[in-house]
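Hi L., both proteins are below.
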Amino acid sequence: MTLKKVISNTKTMQGNLYRGTEAYILGANMRCFAEKLSDVDARQGILITPYLIADDGGLYELHYCEFDVEVRGDKSYYVDYNPGNVLPKEITENLKPQAIIAVGDKKSYTKAVKEYLENMSKMEFSEEKESHPTLKNAQLFFQIFIGERRRLPHSIPQETTRI
């Protein structure tokens, strides 16, 4: 199965939120997506963008919690946040902004996405919720983009931790 097909199937799962042409994927459905990654050839990168979405429709993009999976080379590893950033400790201590995955390394690809989703599910986002009271009871949703290449300004472009 292709990555595009897995993403398309995930977007149509029950519990997701739709606004116009945009689909916001529920956390439980993202875990299903991660399980299906083992059926994909691990040759395309993805960008996962999380959002807090409130019952009243309020939407908050968690830009600094994005996860970029880049496929290249022959080693799989994580890239850390820049130590000089001012992001909340909840983010820097629980997340890695990027994983570089060796071409065809399905195991590391799947593991990196699963670990990211697991860590995101444990986060409280108290700073965001305190700053925006309408997000107090917001739920976590995600979007997945294929092949997005943007340099994350808060990461260090060097190997840090092997996957």
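That was the first. Here is the second:
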Amino acid sequence: MHSDPLTFEGALTLQEYRRARQFHSRGVLPFWAPGALMVAGGLVLGWLQVSSGQDVWVPALMVLGGAVMLAWRLAEGWMSQRTWRRHKLLREHIRGHLDVEAFHAEADHGRNRLPWNLLHQWKASDDLLLIYKAPRLFFILPKHWFSSLESWQQAKDLVSTRLPSRYRLQRKKFLWLAAGWILFSVLVAVNLFAD
């Protein structure tokens, strides 16, 4: 374990903020998959219900809900830019360090010292480290804020020993979602072929 504090410093760019938001919302499936699955499932279910002479309001709602999900995902780039322009704190220069005790960050407006047990989880890509304070509230630490590749890797290693990974939590959500889809499909099939 690295005993010296691992320092970081920098100011977030719009591109890094966009990548962090996309990375945050990326789950086990590609970002467009849930909406596309709902649209496709609604169309298939609608075709089956029309061919058997049943009402199609449930498939119509599925298609509409899936289309709204897809539109929301596609609008994320615009929403990121809007948020970036409105909130000055996102663009502020930040410096800090990670140690075995806590996450430390400092900016012109103040300081944070957050012990690891108060933080929620973490997630890392090749060039971003997200440290979550809550399920949708996180610190963004780009790789280039660290002094070297070695300190970047040591920071990820340190965080991985102090916080649960977001990936593990997302797999559980995916399994519940898959179980729900299977149950829904069974109920629809029973309803279709009961007549």
